[in-house]
UniProtKB/TrEMBL annotation:
Transcription found in the keyword field: yes
Species of origin: Cupriavidus basilensis OR16
InterPro entries, A to Z: HTH_trans_reg/aminotransferase, Tscrpt_reg_HTH_GntR, WH-like_DNA-bd_sf, WH_DNA-bd_sf
Coiled-coil segments on the chain, per record: none
Pfam families given in the database record: GntR
Residues of the HTH gntR-type domain: 23-91
Alphabetized UniProt keyword annotations: DNA-binding, Pyridoxal phosphate, Transcription, Transcription regulation
PROSITE patterns recorded: HTH_GNTR
Official protein name in the record: GABA permease GabP
MF terms (GO), sorted A to Z: DNA binding; DNA-binding transcription factor activity
Length: 190
């Protein structure tokens, strides 16, 4: 039982979250975990507590922890191992090496939490140039079940309408989730 108390103390000291800071708890948790990883307070390959355990230790909602963990997996700071949990990746992305400009940017608060509530999508979306291209058959759309990640059926998605709405929304500086001009939210056209 003493080791559980020590672990809780470690996480409470490492992660100082404040509901009064004006930054969401999820963004604070993400930022502080990235900072701890870059500062080697959480070494490569080290295990994180379960989302349930960390949420209880920090006194926050489990979904807050899950969403922060998922974002860090997408940013390649954490990885999941089936039936074992979340771990700091063995090899950090080269752009996230301590001291790099991108590492400092990644460690900053989530872009939608800064400024006037309008997301800075250029800073928020990761650079995809280093990712492996999706390999797919040339006639993938003609397959009865084209299960290819990242692809959609253009016959089922209103691409032209989406482009028009997106351009109009961006031209007017909107950017909040649930914006009716994007077709989301309570005023959604039928």
């Amino acid at each position: 039982m003493a080791s559980v108390g020590k672990a809780n103390t470690f996480w409470n000291r490492l992660l100082q979250l404040s509901s009064d800071s004006g930054v969401s708890l999820q963004a604070q948790l993400r930022q502080q975990l990235v900072s701890a990883i870059l500062a080697r307070q959480l070494p490569e390959g080290s295990a994180l507590p379960s989302s349930r355990e960390l949420a209880a230790t920090l006194g926050i909602a489990r979904n807050t922890v899950i969403l922060a963990f998922q974002q860090l997996v997408e940013e390649r700071f954490l990885e999941t191992k089936p039936r074992r949990g979340y771990f700091v990746v063995e090899q950090l992305p080269s752009a996230a090496k301590p001291g790099s400009a991108q590492a400092r940017a990644i460690g900053a608060a989530a872009p939608e939490d800064a400024g006037e509530g309008i997301p800075d999508w250029g800073a928020r979306l990761p650079d995809m140039t280093g990712r492996r291209a999706i390999v797919k058959p040339t006639e993938w759309q003609n397959y009865p079940y084209p299960f290819i990640y990242g692809q959609f059926d253009p016959a089922l998605f209103p691409t032209a309408d989406w482009h028009r709405r997106l351009a109009r929304m961006l031209a007017h500086g909107a950017g909040r989730a649930g914006d009716p001009r994007l077709g989301f939210g309570p005023d959604r056209p039928r």
